[in-house]
Specification:
- About 5% of the residues have low confidence.
- About 35% of the residues are buried.
- The protein has a 23-stranded mixed beta sheet that branches.
- A hairpin with a 6-residue loop joins strand 22 and strand 23.
- It is mainly β.
- The protein has one domain.
- The chain contains four helices and 23 strands.
- Helix content is about 10%, strand content about 45%.
C-alpha cells in the first residue's frame, strides 16, 4: 500500500510515535509520496519531537530518551522534508526495501533532512523539566543512515538531498541534520547530495550506485557491485575490499581520454585496479581500457580510467557482435 501525502500549502505529519517513545519504526510497503502541488509551502514528516511535560517529569524516575527511528520504505517520491527535533539526539535509519511480496517501487524524491521544533523551551522556564530539555539540547546531534537493499536493480530510487537553505531559503532557522551515511547492499540507488556525506559504501554483488556531490565524502568504500559514474567522487579515505566490481560510463563520459573516478586523501589498502575493476558502457558492453592508481597505500591520489582508443573500442564491440552471431548460427 502506498502512503500519499498531498496538499497545496504546508502539511505536517508524524506517526503518533515521534513524541511518545524513544525507539520506533514505520513501514511503508508501497511508495511514500510527498505530492505537493502548490506554489509555496511544503510537506514535512516529523521524525522526533520533545513535546509535553510528561515526557520528562523531574523527580519521577523517568529519564531522557534519544530517539532511534527506523523507516522501511518501498519507494520514495515527490518533494518534502524529514525533520528531527533540535532538543534531543536522534538516530534515523531509512531502509529502501521490497515489501512482503517482493515488490519495490522506487521513485524520485527531492528534499531536506533538517532539525527543527515547534516547541519553545527556555533555560529560564519556571518548569524544571523544560530547563532540563533545554540543557540536553546543547550538544545534541542527529544522524541519518540511508540503506538500499531492495534486491531489484531494475527499479531505481533517486534521492536528491538538499540543504535546509536550498529547500526553505536563506532566512530559514532550520539546520541540516549533522551526519549522513549511504550504503547500497542490493538494488539501484542514485544519490545526489548538496551536503557532505560521512561514508558511502557499495557493498553487494547485486548493488548499483550512482553518487554525485560537490562535497567531499569522508570515506568511500567499494566492497562489491557496480558504480555508475556520475562525476569524480572526492573522498577522504578510499577503501577497495572487492574481488571484482564494475564501473559504468556513458557515451558522454567516454568522449574523454582519461576519467578520474575517485580522488582521495588517503588510500587505506593496496590493490591492483585492473584486477578488481571492469569498465562497461551504459548498454552493458565491456569496453576495455585501463584503470590505474596515482599514489599508493597510505598516500593521496586518484583512481583513473584511461579510455580505449576509438578503433580499439570499435574492434572490441565488433568482436563481441561476431561472437554473438556465431553462437546464434550454432
Amino acid at each position: 500500500m502506498n502512503v500519499v501525502m498531498q496538499c497545496h500549502s504546508d502539511y505536517n505529519m508524524d506517526t503518533g510515535a515521534s513524541s511518545s517513545v524513544g525507539d520506533y519504526y514505520f513501514n511503508v510497503g508501497g511508495q511514500m509520496q510527498f505530492n505537493h502541488s502548490g506554489d509555496s509551502g511544503f510537506i514535512r514528516f516529523t521524525l522526533s519531537e520533545a513535546s509535553g511535560g510528561d515526557l520528562w517529569p523531574s523527580g519521577t524516575g523517568y529519564t531522557k530518551f534519544n530517539p532511534h527511528v527506523v523507516g522501511n520504505i518501498g519507494g520514495l517520491s515527490g518533494r518534502g522534508v524529514f525533520s528531527a527535533t533540535k532538543w534531543l539526539s536522534t538516530t534515523v535509519d531509512i531502509n529502501f526495501v521490497s515489501n512482503s511480496e517482493g515488490v519495490f517501487q522506487g521513485g524520485v524524491w527531492t528534499g531536506a533532512f533538517t532539525r527543527s521544533s515547534t516547541e519553545g523551551y527556555s533555560p529560564d522556564s519556571s518548569e524544571q523539566w523544560q530547563r532540563e530539555v533545554y540543557q540536553n539540547s546543547i550538544g545534541s546531534t542527529a544522524s541519518v543512515a540511508f540503506v538500499m537493499d531492495s534486491g531489484n536493480r531494475s527499479v531505481k530510487q533517486t534521492v536528491n538531498l538538499q540543504s535546509a537553505k536550498t529547500f526553505f531559503g536563506d532566512s530559514t532557522s532550520e539546520t541540516d541534520i549533522e551526519s549522513f551515511t549511504v550504503e547500497v547492499r542490493s538494488g539501484n540507488l542514485e544519490f545526489n547530495s548538496e551536503l557532505a556525506i560521512d561514508k558511502v559504501t557499495l557493498a553487494g554483488d547485486n548493488a548499483l550506485l550512482k553518487f554525485t556531490s560537490a562535497q567531499k565524502v569522508g570515506e568511500f568504500v567499494i566492497d562489491a557491485g557496480a558504480l555508475a559514474f556520475g562525476g569524480t567522487i572526492t573522498a577522504g579515505d578510499f577503501t577497495v575490499g572487492a574481488v571484482s566490481a564494475d564501473i559504468i560510463f556513458t557515451a558522454a563520459d567516454l568522449a574523454a581520454h582519461e576519467i578520474v573516478v575517485v580522488e582521495f586523501d588517503y588510500l587505506s589498502n593496496d590493490f591492483d585496479p585492473n584486477e578488481v575493476f571492469t569498465a562497461y558502457d551504459e548498454n552493458g558492453n565491456e569496453i576495455g581500457g585501463e584503470f590505474s592508481l596515482t599514489g599508493g597505500m597510505g598516500e593521496s591520489g586518484s583512481l583513473v580510467f584511461t579510455v580505449p582508443e576509438p578503433a580499439a573500442y570499435a574492434a572490441a564491440l565488433g568482436m563481441l557482435a561476431l561472437f554473438i552471431a556465431v553462437r546464434r548460427r550454432k
